[in-house]
Amino acid sequence: MVLERLKxxxxxxxxxxxxxxxxxxxxxxxxxxxxxxxxxPTPVQVGQQFxxxxxxxxxxxxxxxxxxxxxxxFLFAVVIGMTAGIAMGRxxxxxxxxxxxxxxxxxxxxxxxxxxxIIMWPTNEASILFITFxxxxxxxxxxxxxxxxxxxxxxxRAAATLGAKRFSVLRHVILPSALPSISTGLAVGMGVSWFxxxxxxxxxxxxxxxxxxxxxxxxxxxxxxxxxxxxxxxLGTLSTSLVRLAARLLLRWVPPEQR
Length: 259
What we know:
With 259 residues, the chain is mainly α. Helix content is 81%, strand content 2%.
């Protein structure tokens, strides 16, 4: 088991190394075939710029600001999304009332929400949090609803027959059964929330890694642009991994292939 995991990680690392080497070759040679690599910074230039940025206070302020926005927005999305999903999964009336809004609003991209959010909310910070919240809440709500609906009715009736109250049935039967689907929704929601956050920061932010990336582009600091992109990718991967790890700890009773 350990050897198999080590082998997989080795392949993943090797794949990334090969990608960086190809990137270095394409940029050094200035390849212009379909894509133009002539003006792109090399991995060495990006690494040097990253080394300089980690010694500045502003870079950490941008990262901390984005993480704070993600944390606040995601927390609200979890509470509201799971509540709505449980209600839709257990009540046809609640589903008929809530689900049409989700289906209409869910396809709207985060960028399209920016003008209205700026108008509706008193500050740019609040509008960014709102846009980030919208990115996370829909996947969480839908996956929670599906998980609740897939709970075997036989288990629910058995618990009720044994005298369990509605809240006890929800806590001890429905939520554990729906947890694999909920964990998927949380992981997807975290990924989408980063996309939404960056859209909001680019348009109306003053700090944040998305704002840093866009400002670097406007100032023609291309190595900084790539540093911002890589930082976004790493932060998004780590936050999603934390969500999956937390879900895995709660799903220890579930077979690994079903998690």
